[in-house]
Write a structure and sequence with these properties.
The complex is a heterodimer. By secondary structure, chain A is of the alpha/beta class. In chain B, strands 7, 8, 9, 10, 11 and 12 form a six-stranded antiparallel sheet that branches. Chain B is 33% helix and 26% strand. Classes of the chains: A alpha/beta, B alpha+beta.
């Protein structure tokens, strides 16, 4: 088992005829992902790596009944493409681009909730269930199948962690990039119930950072519902004050909301193992390895 | 992007949110250049336009009783340094006959993930200060983007803050217009503090304005995109932006600069270095897929940051290829390295072996590390050289 996606998941690629769309469609197909259709307005009838291209998501859905769509479109087109996928009834929509206008995401998130669609991203590497399916642009060679479920706001910190885990023979069940933006389609508490219910996931890793209150909400959920061990890291403790890094979401408010200290203490209180760094996550998991057969 | 007060006021005027009669004067101009200066009703308030709070205490807000006073204050303020900023504009406004002061803002709320109205019948002071001293006086009301601002929204605010329904229509107009501004200008924050009740007829007037625009939306907010180019900003930030990199000043001074291909890893690096008691002066986010010549320029910018002795580069290449990184680093080390400066490189991912081979045989101005931890250890071992 894995969460959100598996070897049966049928995927639409929006923006499939673009440079990134073509390249990553090839990568996803090579990994075994069932890419069943592509969408680019005006390019219907073409093929990209053997995948049929449609003008619209609605047509692609009529032909394929896909389970998920991934958006390889520039930030300024995300609102249109995500809205199109949501309205066409795609159950899972993954957006990759960074620098999506915040109000566009506010709208898309609101619409997705209204229609019961799971929206993931933006500013996200996507989702991967190692050995089964990947949706996104992550460097998949470093991932390996196993029992650690990961949710991360940062792509690079997730790669670091996964790289060390794989080197030590600890595989992953599913890794979800919730993304580094201020208003993500899904946050930790949207993914946690899935990882918690998944019998193949034995340990959960949360890679958070300063800004917002998603880690605090996750802590509350963990305290109430999660029996599995959870390991968390919060980066950005020494990031400059009042100035956001490339992750628009990584900023502490003037009232102190979003500080690493608050997040760590909330998580610690919920019984979460707090790691000092990505390397420390791997060390903690090594200690849990035998008990949980990782 | 944070707008200056005069830019916020001009937006209020554009959206017909009531403000006092005002004029903007730029560096190089004098009071008499204002068209219709003689029509102003004195006293006037003369406010220095800088991107910092606390300007009142620093002498940046002055009152002019006469034309002569106004001329003097404008001359005095324009071009001078205030709290570390040069004053390029002053805003002159007629002084209001204030009966009471409220607070109103619409922000993008990260917790509820929607616009949020924040209102208080106790305006004028800093909202953070008010939140500390009288939190019960602050109302927070989320706006559902599918519903917007409705008359009952305002009835609720007035009722909960103990104000008379007399203000219903006027406050509704102000909040609707502020919400329009918020949406159409891609704002993250619009604040009126104080929103003042003025004169015998109790008109509601915005006496100050703060607006912050979403940087990601500047492509469709052309006016602000252009305004940003002439705004005072660190030269390095602008230079890096020309190469599509994000330059982030971290500490005021420090011997270390860091480069990575993602914000998450940059934050991880800064955390590890700061834990060793070493200060990082700046960080550079290359984003994905940087090519050799751009990486070389990125490294040049960091090497030219004042006080920087060492640049620590951490790349986890997915889209970014290690051989491109190596080529760029090699080029920069050969051409831009100053006396006593050195570079620490850690690369992982696509084409790693090729990249590492390209950097072998360079002298001790370039050190290779296996992972982030080791890159920081190499730095700590050379603490004496910093």
């Amino acid at each position: 088992m894995s969460v959100l996606i598996n070897q049966e998941t049928k995927v639409i690629v929006q923006g499939i005829t673009g440079r990134e769309g073509q390249f990553h469609t090839e990568q996803m197909l090579a990994y075994g992902t069932k890419v069943v259709a592509g969408v680019t307005p005006g390019k219907g009838g073409q093929e990209v790596h053997g995948v049929p291209v449609f003008h619209t998501v609605r047509e692609a859905m009529e032909h394929t009944r896909a389970d998920a769509s991934v958006l390889f479109v520039p930030a300024r087109f995300v609102k249109n493409s995500a809205t199109e996928a949501i309205e066409a009834g795609v159950p899972l929509v993954v957006t990759i681009a960074e620098h999506v206008p915040v109000q566009d995401m506010m709208y898309c998130r609101r619409l997705a909730r209204d229609r019961g669609v799971q929206l993931v991203g933006p500013n996200s590497f996507g989702i991967i269930s190692p050995g089964k399916c990947k949706i996104g642009f992550m460097a998949h060679r470093i991932f390996s199948p196993g029992h650690v479920g990961i949710m991360s706001r940062s792509a690079t910190n997730c790669y670091e962690t996964v790289f060390m885990l794989t080197q030590k023979g600890i595989g992953q069940s599913t890794c979800v990039g919730v993304g580094g933006d201020m208003i993500p389609g899904s946050t930790f508490i949207d993914i946690l119930p899935e990882l918690n219910a998944d019998e193949n996931t034995k340990v959960i890793v949360l890679i958070g950072e300063i800004g917002g209150n998603e880690e605090e909400l996750a802590a509350e959920y963990i305290k109430r519902h999660v029996k599995k061990p959870v390991v968390a890291v919060i980066t950005g403790k020494n990031a400059p004050k009042g100035r956001s890094m490339g992750h628009a979401g990584a900023i502490v408010s003037a009232d102190g909301t979003g500080s690493a200290q608050k997040k760590e203490s909330a998580l610690r209180e919920a019984g979460v193992h707090i790691a000092e760094s990505t390397r420390h996550i791997a060390e903690i998991l090594l200690n849990l390895r035998e008990e949980y057969e990782l | 992007m944070k707008l200056l007060e005069y830019q916020a006021i001009s937006l209020f005027n554009q959206y017909q949110i009531p403000t006092m009669k005002s004029a903007v004067l730029s560096h190089g101009e004098c009071f008499d250049d204002i068209a219709g200066a003689e029509d102003f009703r004195f006293p006037l308030v003369v406010k220095a336009q800088i991107a910092s709070g606390g300007r009142g205490k620093a002498g940046g807000i002055r009152f002019a009783q006469t034309m002569k006073d106004a001329r003097k204050h404008c001359r005095d303020l324009l071009g001078r340094e205030l709290l570390g900023y040069t004053v390029y504009q002053v805003l002159l406004t007629e002084k209001a006959d204030v009966r009471s002061e409220w607070y109103l803002s619409i922000i993008l709320d990260r917790v509820d993930k929607c616009p949020m109205i924040i209102f208080s019948p106790e305006g004028g002071m800093d909202i953070e200060e008010l939140a500390r001293t009288q939190p019960q006086k602050i109302l927070r009301l989320p706006i559902d983007p599918f519903i917007g601002v409705q008359p009952y929204t305002v009835s609720y605010l007035l009722a909960k803050s103990g104000l008379s329904p007399f203000y219903q229509d006027e406050l509704y107009k102000v909040i609707c217009r502020l919400y329009q501004l918020f949406l159409q200008q891609d704002a993250l924050l619009t604040e009126i503090n104080p929103l003042a009740v003025c004169g015998d007829d109790e008109r509601i007037i915005a006496l100050d304005g703060k607006v912050e625009i979403d940087d990601s939306a500047l492509y469709r907010q052309k006016v602000w995109l252009q305004a940003r180019e002439v705004m005072p900003e660190e030269d390095f930030v602008k230079e890096a932006r020309a190469f599509n990199f994000l330059y982030i000043p971290v500490e005021k001074t420090g011997p270390v600069a860091v480069i990575s291909n993602g914000s998450g890893m940059l934050m991880s690096c800064i955390d590890l270095i700061a834990k060793e008691g070493i200060q990082v002066s700046a960080a550079l986010d290359l984003g994905g897929g940087a090519t050799a010549d751009r990486i070389s320029q990125g490294l040049r910018i960091m090497l030219s940051t004042p006080g920087v002795k060492v640049v620590l580069i951490n790349i986890f290449g997915g889209i970014t290829r290690c051989d491109e990184v190596a080529q760029g680093v090699r080029d920069a080390v050969e051409n831009y390295l100053g006396k006593g400066q050195f570079v620490i490189v850690r690369m992982e991912g696509t084409n790693k072996e090729k990249g590492v081979a390209m950097l072998e045989g360079m002298d001790n101005s370039l050190l290779m590390a296996e992972d982030i931890r080791q890159s920081v250890d190499l730095l700590v071992e050379r603490r004496d050289l910093l």
